[in-house]
């Protein structure tokens, strides 16, 4: 959106969902994801490891970190393990 060529997987995410704004998620919410259940546990703040991306360097890292602040993602813990495949259901349950 701001000109950074970020692609899925670039910022270390393990699961990417579409159709949810970042501020939709709240700590403690539980979601069905495929046949598993996850619980949102903590907002994931950007860190300087992002400077390892090929389009970021030490000169640009602070600007990039400010760009992705509160948009980086969330940590979640697995409540019920299972399989999640592309196109599977992702739905708030609690």
Overview of this protein structure:
- With about 90 residues, the chain is mainly beta.
- It has one domain (about 20-90).
- Helix content is about 10%, strand content about 25%.
- It has one helix and four strands, in the order E-E-H-E-E.
- The chain has one helix at about 60-70, and strands at about 30-35, 35-45, 75-80, 90.
- The chain has a four-stranded antiparallel sheet, with no helix packed on it.
- A hairpin with a 2-residue loop joins strand 1 and strand 2.
- The protein is elongated and about 40 Å long.
- The model has no long low-confidence stretch (mean pLDDT about 85).
- InterPro entries: Benzoxazolinone_Detox_Enz (IPR052353), MoCF_Sase_C (IPR005302), Pyrv_Knase-like_insert_dom_sf (IPR011037).
- GO terms for molecular function: catalytic activity; molybdenum ion binding; pyridoxal phosphate binding.
- This is MOSC domain-containing protein.
């Amino acid at each position: 959106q701001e000109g950074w060529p970020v692609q899925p997987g670039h910022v270390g995410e393990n699961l990417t969902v579409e159709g949810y704004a970042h501020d939709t998620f709240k700590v403690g919410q539980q979601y069905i994801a495929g046949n598993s259940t996850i619980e949102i546990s903590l907002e994931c703040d950007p860190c300087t490891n992002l400077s390892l991306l090929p389009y970021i360097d030490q000169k640009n890292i602070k600007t990039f970190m400010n760009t992705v602040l509160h948009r980086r993602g969330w940590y979640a813990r697995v409540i019920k393990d299972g399989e999640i495949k592309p196109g599977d259901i992702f739905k708030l349950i609690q």
